[in-house]
């Protein structure tokens, strides 16, 4: 099985967990530059009810710049997605694993950047 994410299940109220995620991202040099409220989007587009589920597009500008300088096509994989998803037994917080994603590029310099970003995202998840 491919390790796509760095994940943790937490208890609490959805909005409070989301705020903790945003704070942890900020504490580790990331800003949220995109946001998709999946619940709202599915209701609006399909008129279906769905659980609370947000996709936060997180960006660490110095790391993004390094990655883009090494491989312009890496923009296809940016920003780093972080999900906050309500489940029956808690709130799932999960960040993309950059090593897995950037590993397909077969670029040693890019793998170094991916390792640094992965370490930062692991800290984010640990702080939630």
Question: What does this protein structure show overall?
Answer:
- The chain has 128 residues and is α+β, with helices and mostly antiparallel strands.
- It is 46% helix and 27% strand.
- The protein has helices at residues 14-27, 38-46, 61-70, 98-103, 108-127; strands at 5-10, 31-37, 53-59, 80-87, 90-96.
- The chain has a five-stranded antiparallel β-sheet.
- The radius of gyration is 15 Å and the shape is globular.
- The two termini are 25 Å apart.
Described by strand count, sense and barrel closure, the largest sheet is: 5 strands, antiparallel
Q: What proportion of the residues form beta strands (DSSP E)?
A: 25-35%
Query: What's the SSE pattern?
Result: EHEHEHEEHH
The helicity comes to 40-55%
Low-confidence stretches: none
Rg computed from alpha carbons, rounded to a whole number of angstroms: 15 Å
Mean pLDDT: 95
Count every helix, treating DSSP H or I runs of 4 or more residues as helices: 5
Shape: globular
- Gap between N and C termini: 25 Å
Strands side by side in the biggest sheet: 1-5-4-3-2
Please count the beta strands (DSSP E, at least 2 residues each): 5
| Structural class designation | alpha+beta
């Amino acid at each position: 099985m491919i390790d796509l994410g760095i994940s943790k299940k937490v208890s609490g109220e959805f909005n409070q967990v989301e705020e903790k995620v945003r704070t942890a991202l900020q504490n580790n040099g990331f800003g949220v530059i995109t946001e998709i409220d999946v619940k709202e989007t599915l209701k609006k587009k399909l008129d279906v009810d769905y659980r609370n589920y947000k996709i936060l597009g997180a960006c660490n500008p110095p790391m993004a710049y390094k990655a883009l300088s090494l491989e312009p096509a890496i923009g296809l994989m940016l920003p780093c997605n972080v999900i906050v998803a309500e489940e029956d037994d808690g709130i799932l917080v999960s960040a993309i694993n950059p090593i897995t994603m950037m590993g397909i590029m077969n670029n040693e310099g890019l793998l170094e950047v991916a390792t640094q970003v992965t370490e930062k995202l692991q800290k984010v998840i640990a702080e939630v």
